[in-house]
């Protein structure tokens, strides 16, 4: 790469896209200011890519796939590229964590955890590259039939602002491991670490055009990318509405998609549960990243005999939670942007007006600037399952509690939203653990634990409105490739 960027986040820095192995501004020269959610101040800018910029990136990825050394590289060599990227992410870990925290407002502790997550993706998929293989199939006499797993070609990854480092790792790790080339469009609200990772990928030895990042608005760059006829497969994480638009765009080219569209994930706490073990996990599952987590545990269903006890213990913990600037490393940071804060505010106000009981509220640190996008944590009790906060993703630090009378009712409530991403089951009864885990319709079920976002090895994805396709683990390698069947007639 011609001009290599310094590792520090200098004030007012004009970040560049990475297209075909080079830094690239938007062809129009237009830029988007990057605001820090902690203080609402602009500290950098990114290119506002349009259709022509996307075309350049996709054409580069197409060429790199069709002609470049990448498509002829052995799985072992691809794995080594990913492993070198893992090592570079580790080496630049502090810089990446600081950049991610400033760009998204998340506490620095969470920024560091996200770096570890990103590292694990490149490490895991670096090691997995040469371990994916096809089958030989018993067929007719005189024939041998076998299958190969082949890359789709050019993969477009459209990713959100909540965990850019980790979600990029999940998309890029699996897509590149299978030999695809990649064009990523991060969120206009959080693009900086994606740019840095694409720069590091060049340093790691990925050939030009294999790992491209275009930045810009969803309605321009995102829409152009998802509709581009030279893209072979689209993977998206974000809101259901945008997911529908992207699927419609990809459908015009009859391309495959993976959709990760959020959730309204329940944790079910039975009366025999180890409450002390559950409490910190229940709180963390909604407070981590300010509740801006697709797999946030945003509903807690509590068996009636322990409802009051668990509700009051959760209230005690909620009332001690404090939101503040990312550098202060408090329980949670600011929300990503004013629009998101407004969404959370209006959903909380609607619930209050409808008479839903507020059991506790956390605080905003007195030193937090008024210009930051903070929202205090809110705990709602005895929520009506038909209420908006019981059904819709808030994507903020808002937890809803529901009492239940029986296992039957718990399962009905757990399955009673349009989503089905993750669930938690808290009970000491082994038979019940198995029964409930099977009956809850969610892509992941945790028993006596909860993994909001973690577990690179664990297949992840939704049922119902939470989306389709699977990411993480080996499953993602199947999503990021297609089976080719070859039949030999040898008589
Ligand atoms: P979004 O779904 O609109 O944005 C996600 C990504 O899609 C971004 O990169 C964006 O630029 C891009 N995009 C937007 N419109 C597009 C289009 N027409 N074509 C192609 N790409 C497009 O999410 P948002 O507006 O930032 O947030 C809205 C809500 O989405 C949140 O309140 C939250 O409920 C949900 N959300 C969920 C997740 C998740 O991980 N599941 C992540 C972020 C947001």
Protein architecture, described:
It is a single chain. With 491 residues, the protein is of the alpha/beta class. The chain has 2 domains: 7-261 and 469-485, 3-Layer(aba) Sandwich (Aldehyde Dehydrogenase, Chain A, domain 1), CATH 3.40.605; 266-455, Aldehyde Dehydrogenase, Chain A, domain 2 (3-Layer(aba) Sandwich). Helix content is 38%, strand content 21%. The protein has 15 helices and 23 strands. Strands 16-18-19-14-13-20-21 form a 7-stranded mixed beta sheet, with helices on both faces. Strands 10-9-8-11-12-22 form a 6-stranded mixed beta sheet, with helices on both faces. Strand 8, helix 5 (164-177) and strand 9 form a beta-alpha-beta unit. Helix 7 packs parallel to helix 8 (240-252) and helix 9 packs across helix 10. It is globular, with a radius of gyration of 23 Å. It starts with 12 loop residues before the first strand and ends with a strand. The relative contact order is 0.14. The structure holds nicotinamide-adenine-dinucleotide (NAD). Residues 158-162, 185-188, 218-219, 222-223, 226, 237-239, 242, 245-246, 260-262, 294, 340, 343, 393, 395 line the site of nicotinamide-adenine-dinucleotide.
């Amino acid at each position: 790469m011609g001009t290599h960027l310094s590792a520090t986040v200098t004030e007012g820095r004009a970040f560049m896209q990475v297209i075909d192995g080079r830094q690239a501004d938007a062809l129009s020269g237009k830029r988007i200011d990057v605001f820090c959610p902690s203080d609402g101040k602009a500290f950098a800018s990114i290119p506002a890519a349009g259709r022509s910029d996307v075309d350049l990136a996709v054409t580069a990825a197409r060429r790199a796939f069709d002609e470049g050394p990448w498509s002829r590289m052995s799985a072992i060599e691809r794995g080594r590229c990913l492993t070198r990227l893992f090592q570079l992410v580790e080496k630049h870990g502090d810089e990446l964590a600081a950049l991610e925290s400033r760009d998204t407002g998340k506490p620095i502790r969470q920024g560091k955890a996200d770096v570890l997550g990103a590292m694990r993706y490149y490490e895991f998929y670096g090691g997995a590259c040469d371990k994916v293989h096809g089958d030989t199939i018993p067929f007719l006499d005189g024939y041998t039939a076998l299958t190969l797993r082949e890359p789709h070609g050019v993969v477009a990854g459209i990713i959100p602002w909540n965990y850019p480092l980790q979600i990029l790792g999940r998309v890029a790790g699996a897509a590149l491991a299978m030999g695809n080339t990649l064009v990523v469009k991060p969120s206009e609200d959080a693009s900086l670490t994606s740019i840095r990772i694409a720069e590091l990928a060049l340093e790691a030895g990925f050939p030009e055009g294999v790992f491209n990042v275009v930045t810009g608005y969803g309605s321009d760059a995102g829409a152009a990318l998802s509709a581009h006829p030279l893209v072979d497969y689209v993977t998206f994480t974000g809101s259901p509405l945008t997911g529908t638009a992207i699927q419609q765009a990809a459908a015009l080219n009859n391309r495959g998609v993976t959709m990760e569209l959020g959730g309204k994930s329940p944790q079910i706490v039975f009366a025999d549960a180890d409450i002390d073990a559950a409490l910190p996990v229940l709180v963390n599952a909604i407070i981590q990243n300010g509740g801006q987590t697709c797999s946030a545990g945003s509903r807690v269903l509590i068996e009636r005999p322990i409802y009051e006890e668990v509700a009051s213990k959760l209230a005690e913990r909620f009332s001690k939670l404090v939101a503040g600037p990312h550098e202060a490393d408090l329980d949670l940071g600011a929300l990503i942007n004013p629009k998101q804060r407004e969404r959370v505010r209006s959903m909380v106000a609607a619930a209050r007006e409808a008479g839903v009981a507020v059991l506790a509220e956390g605080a905003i640190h007195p030193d937090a600037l008024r210009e930051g996008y903070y929202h205090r944590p809110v705990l709602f009790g005895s929520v009506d399952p038909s209420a908006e906060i019981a059904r819709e993703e808030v994507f903020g630090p808002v937890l809803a509690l529901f009492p239940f009378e029986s296992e039957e009712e718990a399962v009905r409530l757990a399955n009673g939203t349009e989503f089905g991403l993750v669930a938690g089951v808290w009970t000491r009864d082994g038979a019940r653990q198995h029964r409930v885990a099977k009956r809850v319709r969610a892509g992941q079920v945790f028993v006596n634990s909860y993994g909001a976002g973690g577990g690179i090895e664990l297949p992840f994805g939704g049922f119902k409105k939470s989306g389709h396709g699977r990411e993480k683990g080996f499953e993602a390698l199947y999503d990021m490739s297609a089976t080719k069947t070859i039949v030999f007639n040898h008589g």
